[in-house]
Amino acid sequence: xxxxxxxxxxxxxxxxxxxxxxxxxxxxxxxxxxxxxxxxxxxxxxxxxxxxxxxxxxxxxxxxxxxxxxxxxxxxxxxxxxxxxxxxxxxxxxxxxxxxxxxxxxxxxxxxxxxxxxxxxxxxxxxxxxxxxxxxxxxxxxxxxxxxxxxxxxxxxxxxxxxxxxxxxxxxxxxxxxxxxxxxxxxxxxxxxxxxxxxxxxxxxxxxxxxxxxxxxxxxxxxxxxxxxxxxxxxxxxxxxxxxxxxxxxx
Length: 251
Fold this sequence. Notes:
27% of the residues lie in helices and 11% in strands. It has helices spanning 14-28, 36-39, 46-55, 72-75, 81-92, 133-147, 151-154, 156-160; strands spanning 4-7, 33-34, 59-64, 96-101, 126-128, 212-214, 218-220. It has a 5-stranded parallel β-sheet with strand order 2-1-3-4-5, sandwiched between helices. Strands 6-7 form a two-stranded antiparallel ribbon. The longest helix has 15 residues, at 14-28. Mean pLDDT is 79; it is low at 240-251.
């Protein structure tokens, strides 16, 4: 089944039609989007292929360029394929959405359309800004996923987007136990550390912070510490508090 049929006129919207085809094919699969120049194999009769493509679709996007209504003679020609595809969609009850290609393309007016196509002017259209194609293509893709049954499950963008509040693995390969989470409940076989504001050590051995390492594997830390290292000859005195008050002995 072709879930989306792209209707366009060569020379007036065909480039935008190709962009839409490329994006929808990426999101939902190449076989889910019908565009004549891509979907009809060489040597195959296109009249039957076009009408069959419309009938197998769940949605028709009619790309309307700035000169679309200027083709009055062709829009009134029963053999014009832009006209025939849209009328086939109407007859089959398939939703038709006019895509207004570019900032200079206005909404369709009944006065500019043959009677058979007049209802196009009553349909809600979608503007497509060629200066911001990324936004326009995303909007059309999201709309197709909503309106065409089955496309939502095929949507590559939905499959690659994490659910709200989900957690991605950012620590890659781990040898041993690793817990990476937001809030969690239940039992955890291991060490849980939460809201730590300082050094954390959960393995074997000691941890020293703001300490001095000296010979013999000793560490000293804290205020008021004095350490003398090496050979000493004579007395070493160290006092805290007020200095000694002695009489001057004249030396």
